[in-house]
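Quick one, tokens below. Sequence please?
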């Protein structure tokens, strides 16, 4: 038993850090926003979605769900993505009931907790925002989370009262009628000051610091 207890901190450390790989978005300080040159396409909020996935209990109980986008646009200049932004409704945080399998747990309880001051404090800060600062051709290593990316997107992501710049691969398709974009990457929530159950020694990291974000954006002509 003593050997098992001594090994637990190392086990929690390895599981909690399992997502620290090349799928993590590069995070820097807030950058200058790219001007939206060319034609502007409005994001269709009915076909646009943001998914999230995080782990609980040291990586042993994944939780996942979606968040709604309320407004946004993408711009195209000379057949290339030039800029864009979208606003996220933090009060729309949804936890998929299929991800909560414990008999004594409810997905709605987790939704309430995520909206509380422990996490996003949605009552005081009801929206999050992403604004593109740079869009360039993808030339890096292939992404395991997203097959065949063709863009490398950088943008200022505002969560709660903190704004940081994140860079991640994306698959963007541009046509005469609209723009679609998909991306999937990992962020460290503590970089934005969302520190609940993440401080102290690794065995106390009940909820992983890493969150997988999936973007499915659909923008159409005005």
């Amino acid at each position: 038993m003593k050997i098992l207890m001594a090994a637990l901190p190392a086990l929690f450390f390895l599981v909690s850090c399992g997502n620290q790989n090349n799928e993590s978005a590069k995070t820097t300080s807030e950058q200058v926003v790219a001007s939206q040159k060319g034609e502007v396409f409005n994001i269709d909020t009915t076909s646009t979605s943001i998914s999230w996935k995080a782990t609980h209990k040291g990586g042993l109980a994944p939780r996942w769900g979606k968040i709604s986008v309320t407004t946004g646009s993408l711009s195209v200049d000379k057949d290339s993505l030039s800029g864009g932004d979208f606003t996220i409704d933090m009060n729309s945080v949804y936890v998929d009931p299929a991800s909560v399998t414990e008999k004594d747990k409810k997905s709605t309880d987790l939704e309430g907790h995520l909206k509380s001051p422990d996490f996003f404090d949605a009552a005081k800060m009801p929206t999050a925002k992403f604004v593109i600062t740079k869009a360039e051709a993808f030339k890096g290593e292939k992404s395991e989370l997203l097959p065949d990316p063709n863009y490398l997107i950088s943008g200022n992501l505002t969560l709660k009262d903190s704004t940081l710049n994140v860079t991640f691969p994306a698959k963007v398709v541009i046509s005469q009628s609209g723009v679609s974009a998909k991306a999937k990457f990992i962020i460290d929530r503590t970089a934005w000051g969302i520190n609940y159950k993440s401080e102290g020694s690794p065995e106390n990291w009940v909820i992983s610091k890493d969150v997988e974000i999936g973007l499915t954006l659909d923008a159409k002509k005005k």
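DSSP finds two helices and ten strands in the chain. Strands lie at 26-29, 39-43, 49-56, 61-77, 80-95, 127-137, 151-159, 162-174, 178-188, 207-221.
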